[in-house]
Amino acid sequence: MFETSTLNARNKQVQRLVRILFLLMTLFLIVPVLTILATLVVKGSSVISIDFLFTNPTEGMTAGGIFPALLGTVFLVAVDLVIAIPIGISAAIYLSEYAGNNWLTRVINLAIINLAGVPSIVHALFGLGAFVLFFGFGTSILAASLTLAIMTLPLVIVASKESMQAVPQAFREASWNMGATRWQTIRRVVLPNAIPGILTGLILEISRTAGETAPIMFTGAVFFTPFLPQSIFDQTMAMPLHLFVVATQVPGVPEDLPYGVALMLIALVLFMNALSIAFRAWLRGKKKW
Amino acid sequence: MVAGMQPPANEPGAQVEAANIKLAVRDLSISYGRDTALGNVSLEIREHEIFGIIGPANAGKTSFLKSLNRMDMFNSDMHVKGEVLFNGLNIRKLRNIYALRSRIGVVFPLPVGLPMTIYDNVALAPRLSGMKNKADLDVIVERCLTRAALWDEVKDRLNSLGSLLSGGQQQRLTIARALSQEPELLMLDEFSIAVDPVTTMRIEDVLKELKSEMTIILVTNLVQQARRLADRTAFFLEGECVEIGETEDLFTDKVKDQRTNDYIEGRFG
Question: What is the model's pLDDT at position B94?
């Protein structure tokens, strides 16, 4: 009754092959990540020190540290989050919980998809026209962060909306049946369950924001300034642009310097992600999801 | 009873005998797009009775319940026509629909333990209505869990997650949650589908006790459950209310419609 037929044997063989194929494809994904990290660590770690992190660049940016750029990127991300979180999450709540299936909703969804598809250099030119010139913010952290926020809003909206829609409808109905309004239901039932997904969206958003060069080039980031930004109306240096500059624009840069800057940029992004992940884990532990 | 939900004394229909009608339904029709789920149902549900509704799938039982607390507002496909009077007031004309819903407790076929602690599940309705005092909430939580026959099993772990309880426990949690609303009307929609027989009997005992305090609508696909519990029973079939009568009558030769008899005898459905 349980003898193996040739058909069984072949199915088993195919299954084994397919499994190995999928595993190989998955491993293939790791190769570039490891290569990048290894290269940066091997070539760049020699320049990294406390001094490197906390001093200005010197001698025409061929020596010294990266402090203004590091601080500038932290600033840009922080202001970007202040703009993108309230707008993005509000929009996601509307689209997930209030919007009916009508032409307005379809237009909004189409706009979000298109916004996500606009190349970053186009966002840069839009930011230059709108925030730097039209609103008169000048090249400033505010203009750059607004540009970054608009560029990354689709990420926040889509991730938040999807995590809210993953909350089972039965939960909402149970709450409505008790006499809760839509907003009470959102606040007490939907959002607490959606927060891990929303945070995942924000992690993606932060990584994207910290690493973008084009949108900030015309709107707020500068080649070099010895001054740290005092307000959101100041210009600032930023890590991705600084990397571009030391890698291609300045003659006589020691070979390991750009690798060190790149390594720090990645470390910064990973550090910010780690913060969000820790926050998410802390929330989960607290709420016992 | 909260002021404002009472019918004005001079309104026609507020006679003495109408005073113990909890819910009057007149010519109620429900449709989803072009499909009619329920057509022209008229019935009256008395205070402090258990009103059973039996019938096969797709009879319109759940849609009927949904229309009673205006859940059609959340479903743009669902269209309701006709009148429903709750305590003599037309629910379509109520301005405060949330107050109506908070007076009606609902228990679903599959238990919905919200992903919060057991305590928070039961305290949710009082909190929604603005209660913050921990001591008051403690009293309500203990009382409702006790009455839902769940207190002894969970009293030592009120802070663990409600959605991790077993199916039968979750259903009793859902009932405790409904009771925390102090409802005037409790609607149970096939509550025993996911519950073991022993728990079912315990919940049935609870319902018999609750009858003295509230009106209960019991939708069930178990005709014997209706027979055990319901004072009067309606038989729904394919969107039609075929027959309403004293429950015992439906099980004897006093049954008026042959289809009711066929369903109860298990010849279809």
Answer: 86
Token representation of residue A289: 């999801």
Residues of B in contact with A184 (CB under 8 A): 128
Contacts of B211 (CB under 8 A, 6+ apart): B48, B49, B50
Give residue-wise pLDDT tens across range A121-180: 999 999 999 999 999 898 899 999 999 999 999 999 999 999 999 999 999 999 999 989
Beta strand segments in A1-77, E: 57-58, 63-64
Quick one: closest CA in A to B128, which residue? A180
- A180-205 pLDDT, tens digit per residue, is 999 999 999 999 889 888 988 888 88
Task: Parse chain A into domains and list their residue ranges.
Answer: 69-283
Say if B86 falls within a structural domain.
no
Which residues of A fall within a CB distance of 8 Å from B101? 176-179
* Nearest by Cα to A272 from A86, A76, A77, A107: A77
8 Å CB contact of A174 and B112: yes
Structural domain including B152 reads 48-70+101-264
User: Are the beta carbons of B69 and A177 separated by less than 8 Å?
Assistant: yes
A177–B101 CB contact, under 8 Å:
yes
Cα four-point dihedral sign B115, B116, B119, B123: negative
Across chain B, what does the average pLDDT equal? 87
Residue A189, min C-alpha distance to chain B (Å): 8
Cβ of B112 within 8 Å of Cβ of A171? The answer is yes
Taking an 8 Å cut-off on Cβ atoms, the answer to whether B128 and A178 are in contact is yes
- pTM comes to 0.81
Chain A residue numbers touching B127 (CB-CB < 8 A): 188
Residues of chain A with pLDDT under 70: 286-289
> Quick one: A69-283 is in which CATH superfamily?
MetI-like (1.10.3720.10)
